[in-house]
Amino acid sequence: MRSLIDILELSLEEIDSLIETACDIKKNPAKYADKCRGKKLATLFFEPSTRTRLSFEAAMYELGGNVLGFSEANSSSASKGESMADTARVVSGYADIMAIRHPKEGAPMVASKSAYVPIINAGDGGHSHPTQTLADLCTIKNEKGRLSDLTIGFCGDLKFGRTVHSLLAALSRYTGIKVVLISPKELCIPSYVKHETIIKSGMEYTETESLEEVLPTLDVLYMTRVQKERFSYVEDYERLKDSYILTAEKLAASKSDLIVMHPLPRVNEISVAIDKDPRAKYFDQTLYGKYMRMALILFLLDEKQKNTEEKESPYRLVHGKKCTNPACICSTEQELPQIFKCVNEEEQIYRCIWCDSRAK
Ligand code: ASP
After folding, report:
1. Residue 27 CB: number of other CB atoms within 10 A?
2. What does the pLDDT average to over 144-165?
3. Active-site residue numbers?
4. What is the pLDDT of residues 199-253, one digit of tens each?
5. Between helices 107-114 and 84-92, what is the axis angle to 10°?
6. What's the CA-to-centroid distance between 34 and ligand 1, angstroms?
7. DSSP, residue by residue, 276-299
8. Same structural domain, 221 and 270
9. Domain residue limits at 256
10. Ligand 1 site-directed mutation target among 101, 163, 267, most atoms within 8 Å of CB
11. Band of pLDDT at residue 65, cut at 50, 70 and 90
């Protein structure tokens, strides 16, 4: 049975078809209003969310289905020590499909191994966020007319910004994409994303600390919030939180057809004066997100009926190594098997299958 844990599990054709469905839903909502009649979506949110949870819920209601779930870890049995695997197995009996957000990296993947229904990763720690990527791709396709031949700047917290990691993975399969990574050194892109996504795919990239310098060259600017909740020391967050603030004066130097995106919530990175600028697309992005989640729910429920086999890992899997990432789900769920994938045979690079961190 298919789930959506990582954006790369969807082929380019499947992504195109999801975008097409999302656009059709937007145009003809009545055609879809009964598609999920009698079906239930469970939203298991162990971490705060506004857009992702509510857009999933709105998506299921607009498809004629129902929703159940919780929006904080404290109101679930996780607070009594229940494992992710057990929770997912139990909720499988109550819902037809599940969206899970969790602070631990790899938690939705763990759930997908024990659940009997499709699991959608709605954000796992600083790791990935594939449904935000679907919203982002739909926004770029609709607002720029294409998903290739674009210069895209990613600005802010590229270290902990899971939406950046997933979107870069998705973009690495399109042609003519140049990425400009704009961040302070402390918040630069993790090595696994740089090596296994950007460099491996041959995508052109540059790194800089200056937004002003590169702004005039960009077709898309993807701003991000500094992820306060992922810092070990509050002083580090305080020092870095205002690294970039996009103001109307700075925006004046950009192309007239630039689009400014942001997964939201915005804290201080984009001045509110920009909201009225036609280049600002971050609120449209939230709506595209709802339509893409509707398309995804329909797709996964359809795949479930077809009983599609889960694809085998393309990597060689090994046991006997230990994951040292404190944010990995295996750091709190001791029973989980420690499995590593060999992502580079020549250099013998092994990464944890749950969180992607490198074996020491
Ligand atoms: N809403 C996005 C996420 O859940 C971005 C953010 O929180 O900054 O990752």
Report:
1. 9
2. 97
3. 51-52, 80, 101, 129
4. 999 999 999 999 999 999 999 999 999 999 999 999 999 999 999 999 999 999 9
5. 50
6. 30
7. GSTTB-HHHHHHHHHHHHHHHHHH
8. yes
9. 130-286
10. 163
11. very high
